[in-house]
């Protein structure tokens, strides 16, 4: 074991996080679930979602047998919804192809939807204590600073270099503790904006600390100005019922329910497509526009509320959706802007 690894493990024994919900009674299922939820999401945000999710789906079989809408409902607000869809898909694959037992082979785990090399390593090292390195965002930041590795970590060449360092310093014993310690150091000490270098157990090995420039690492991705997109929602409401349609299983808000939408502000074309005439409308109100931010663009949403005098009846093959009851809401996946608007609609 290297001195670097020993220092990390000694720090973990004294200061590492050992009481996170997914660290208690660890199984491959709970570790997998937490790792997926923690992708691009902070621990403090994940904890309440994890607790609710595990209460509803305490094991993989329960998840595999669940309806996708329920899975997405529990994920609503956590973002990156393809994670939830892949989670559900993977549970079904494991139930069918592995008799409900999580595979213990690293290649088999890595091949499952939504699981990459780092997540696979986290599962197999944490649960079975096998020697596999991991490389999440926190660890990338530690390694780029410690060894002064220039370049954006998302670039394949840089990522490959970081994997070599991760492999070199991951110890043969106590791999689970070491991997957790590295994640903890990244989250608690080697933070993005204000690293606490004096408290770091590996500052004696850290090149950027010795040079006094840890904030120069990791190199930032060249920022491009976020593009702006506009969308126009048509909220069709009859009494306490609101029409929602399920989005495709790929793309923005994958698998979630949303209002009918268009790329132009002319609501007439939307109404025509649903065969709604003005004599069917009690009230048409253009609501206040608002902005929703994605990682790559800004979405400006302009909703129009259309209160109907009668409940339209559509052919299911033409308009696939549900009449969502505001007083008895169904458990379905809703993106944050949709949930925001639904909560503000008037009830009768």
TrEMBL record:
Pfam families: HHH, HhH-GPD, NUDIX_4. Gene3D superfamilies: Helix-hairpin-Helix base-excision DNA repair enzymes (C-terminal), Hypothetical protein, domain 2, Nucleoside Triphosphate Pyrophosphohydrolase. It is an enzyme of class 3 (hydrolase). It catalyses: Hydrolyzes free adenine bases from 7,8-dihydro-8-oxoguanine:adenine mismatched double-stranded DNA, leaving an apurinic site. The keyword Hydrolase applies. Signal peptide: none annotated. GO terms for molecular function: 4 iron, 4 sulfur cluster binding; 8-oxo-7,8-dihydroguanine DNA N-glycosylase activity; adenine/guanine mispair binding; metal ion binding; oxidized purine DNA binding; purine-specific mismatch base pair DNA N-glycosylase activity. Residues 37-188 form the HhH-GPD domain. CDD domains: ENDO3c, NUDIX_DNA_Glycosylase_C-MutY. Keywords: 4Fe-4S, DNA damage, DNA repair, Glycosidase, Hydrolase, Iron, Iron-sulfur, Metal-binding. The keyword Iron applies. InterPro entries: A/G_AdeGlyc_MutY, DNA_glycosylase, Endonuclease-III-like_CS2, Endonuclease3_FeS-loop_motif, Endouclease-III_FeS-bd_BS, HhH-GPD_domain, HhH_base_excis_C, HhH_motif. Binds 1 [4Fe-4S] cluster. Its EC number is 3.2.2.31. Its cofactor is [4Fe-4S] cluster. One of its GO terms (biological process) is mismatch repair. Adenine glycosylase active on G-A mispairs. MutY also corrects error-prone DNA synthesis past GO lesions which are due to the oxidatively damaged form of guanine: 7,8-dihydro-8-oxoguanine (8-oxo-dGTP). NCBIfam families: mutY, PRK10880.1. Belongs to the Nth/MutY family. This is Adenine DNA glycosylase. It comes from Candidatus Photodesmus katoptron Akat1.
């Amino acid at each position: 074991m290297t001195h670097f690894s020993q220092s990390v493990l000694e720090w973990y024994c004294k200061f590492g996080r050992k009481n996170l919900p997914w660290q208690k009674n660890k199984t491959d299922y709970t570790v997998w679930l937490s790792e997926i939820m923690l992708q691009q999401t902070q621990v403090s945000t994940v904890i309440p979602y994890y607790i609710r999710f595990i209460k509803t789906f305490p094991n993989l079989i329960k998840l595999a047998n669940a309806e996708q809408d329920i899975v997405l409902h529990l994920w609503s607000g956590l973002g990156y919804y393809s994670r939830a869809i892949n989670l559900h898909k993977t549970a079904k694959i494991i139930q069918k192809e592995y008799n409900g037992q999580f595979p213990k082979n690293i290649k088999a785990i890595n091949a499952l939807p939504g699981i990459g090399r780092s997540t696979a390593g986290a599962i197999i090292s944490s649960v079975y204590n096998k020697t596999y390195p991991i490389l999440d965002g926190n660890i990338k930041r530690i390694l780029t600073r410690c060894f002064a590795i220039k370049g954006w970590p998302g670039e394949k060449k840089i990522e490959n270099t970081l994997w070599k360092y991760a492999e070199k310093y991951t110890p043969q014993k106590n791999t689970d503790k070491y991997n957790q310690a590295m994640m903890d150091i990244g989250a608690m000490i080697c933070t993005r904006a204000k690293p606490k270098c004096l408290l770091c157990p590996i500052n004696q090995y850290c090149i950027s600390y010795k040079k006094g420039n840890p904030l120069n690492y990791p190199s930032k991705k060249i920022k491009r100005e976020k593009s702006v997109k506009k969308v126009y929602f048509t909220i069709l409401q009859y009494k306490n019922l609101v029409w929602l349609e399920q989005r495709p299983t790929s793309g923005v808000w994958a698998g979630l329910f949303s209002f009918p939408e268009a790329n132009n502000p002319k609501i007439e074309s939307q109404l025509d497509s649903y065969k709604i005439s003005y004599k069917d409308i009690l009230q048409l109100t253009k609501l206040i526009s608002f902005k929703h931010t994605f990682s790559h663009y800004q979405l400006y949403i302009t909703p129009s509320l259309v209160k109907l005098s009668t409940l339209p009846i559509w052919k299911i093959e033409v308009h696939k959706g549900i009449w969502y009851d505001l007083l008895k809401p169904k458990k379905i996946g809703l993106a944050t802007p949709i949930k925001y608007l639904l909560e503000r609609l008037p009830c009768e």
